[in-house]
Amino acid sequence: MTKEQERARARRRHEEQQKTAKPPVSDSTRDKQVFGVILAVILVIAAVIVVPKLIGSSDTPAAASANPSATPTAGATPTSKGGLVAGQKLAAGCTAPPANQANPKQQSTVPPKAEAAGKTFVATVKTTCGTITMELDGTKAPQTVASFLNLAKTGYWAPSPCHRLTTEGIYVLQCGDPTGSGEGGPGYQFGIENAPADGKYPRGVLAMARMQDPNSNGGQFFITYKETQLPTEGGGYTIFGKVTKGLDIVDKIAAGGLVTAGQPTPVNPISILSVSVTEKKA
């Protein structure tokens, strides 16, 4: 083989090697590749940790207005386990609240509205701060009043704290969750009745708290201690009665303010001890 042939064969071998060889990686390129791998690992870990928090629980209710901290909404309200929490103190004439219920009585069927339709009832609510008397309107809100009768009869609220107070723009004391968490319910839900079209709730009104879903009324209710304007989006809030005696008790609790600014827990605690209901005869 001549030298010319050897050189030609060598060139062909070199060309074949060049076709399959990978280009060399510079130090800067290699550093970028390593950084990319590390970043990808961090993003995967972050997704595992953060995404569930962003999605949240399907049971967590949303507020019914642009101001969820003030709107009477059933759900997501921190409170005590019974007794006094830091910053709380008893108002004059009040006794210490009992422990909240761990496992409130549950039902699966909405009580029939016929039990209350066309009738008026008087509810006597004994609390740790005195007795509050209410008149329930079964003509305008038969389903709500039928539910109230049922929960009173079964002792659902005995005991339960008034776990939420609002003092800015919206003036309500919210009660009716035996767990005190703001997330408790009787096991059934129903829709809105007798909600004012203008969103105005006079002083002393008895109305239902609910979640964003208009069919989420249950066992939580609120009392307005000043005239209050509430949002009408979603259907508003059911008015089913009024306080006829003992509104001064609610005034006293409201005057005590909140444990911490922006938090819903009243400084002066109040709990329901028992509820009894009788039909009001004409």
UniProtKB/TrEMBL annotation:
Record keyword Nucleotide-binding present: no
Residue ranges, compositional bias (Low complexity): 59-80
Keywords: Isomerase, Membrane, Rotamase, Transmembrane, Transmembrane helix
SUPFAM superfamilies: Cyclophilin-like (SSF50891)
Superkingdom, natural source: Bacteria
Domain PPIase cyclophilin-type: 130-277
Biased composition (Polar residues): 98-110
Enzyme Commission (EC) number: 5.2.1.8
Bias-annotated ranges (Basic and acidic residues): 1-19
InterPro entries recorded: Cyclophilin-like_dom_sf, Cyclophilin-type_PPIase_dom, Cyclophilin_A-like
Molecular functions per Gene Ontology: peptidyl-prolyl cis-trans isomerase activity
Enzymatic reactions: [protein]-peptidylproline (omega=180) = [protein]-peptidylproline (omega=0)
UniProt KW Glycoprotein keyword: no
The protein's name: Peptidyl-prolyl cis-trans isomerase
Species this chain originates from: Terrabacter terrigena
